[in-house]
Amino acid sequence: MNIFRLFGDLSHLAAIAILLLKIWKTRSCAGVSGKTQLLFAVCFITRYIDLFLHFVSLYNTEKVMKLIYISASVFTCYLIFFKFKATYDGNHDSMRAEFLIVPAAGLACLINTKFDAIEILWTFSIYLEAVAILPQLFLISKTGEAETITSHYLFAQGSYRALYILNWIYRYHYESHVDTIAIVAGVVQTILYCDFFYLYITKVVKGQKIVLPA
Amino acid sequence: YGCDLVHDEL
């Protein structure tokens, strides 16, 4: 474990907590893409499927973190699609999730480290996570604005994989560990946040709200 | 062998 991966995981946890708090406190999921949250839930379930196969005692933090990610993302989807369904902005959350899931699944069958079920599920999860934020960014571009709390959520969510890139550089240099598929997908994922990061740094940090040119 | 492919990251 290195500092980059530690802060990456903490940033990821923070993102999940910020979103849950926003929805729970405001009792509304306005401005939140339910599809992105569904895709994240699918990512966690397919990536941590080993938790369900051979259940190992929760002796280490990694198992606990995996369970937190899965339960928090499923609970977030429950809040969006059931509890606060009335506030779900379905009209603007209109990016076709199939256009992300099918290519990720196809690519996972073509480019993977080993052609076996668990490995392909893991690879699918990595590819899907890289593009899972697109419906959320699409929704913001449609509504033309993002609530400040949602911007903080996106910043934490984007920073997590950016920090993982530093972690991969660290591990390559000190442990000569390379996981090419995760690295390429992680770089693509972080690049998708670039324009949002620019808006966040230039606006939200100064207390302004992100309003996209309509 | 078999599970040598360990993805040790979250």
TrEMBL record, chain A:
Subcellular location per the Swiss-Prot or TrEMBL entry:
Cytoplasmic vesicle, COPI-coated vesicle membrane; Endoplasmic reticulum membrane
Sorted keywords for this record are: Cytoplasmic vesicle, Endoplasmic reticulum, ER-Golgi transport, Membrane, Protein transport, Receptor, Transmembrane, Transmembrane helix, Transport
Q: Which InterPro entries match?
A: ER_ret_rcpt (IPR000133)
One GO biological-process annotation of the entry reads: vesicle-mediated transport
| Top-level taxonomic group | Eukaryota
Q: Does the keyword Membrane apply?
A: yes
Q: What is its main location?
A: membrane
Q: Name one GO cellular component term.
A: endoplasmic reticulum membrane
Q: Does the keyword Transmembrane apply?
A: yes
The record's Pfam families line, in alphabetical order, gives: ER_lumen_recept (PF00810)
UniProt-recorded Gene Ontology molecular function terms = ER retention sequence binding
Transmembrane feature ranges: 36-55, 67-84, 96-115, 121-140, 182-201
Membrane topology summary: Multi-pass membrane protein
Family stated for the protein in its record: Belongs to the ERD2 family.
Q: Return the protein name.
A: ER lumen protein-retaining receptor
Q: Which organism is it from?
A: Oikopleura dioica
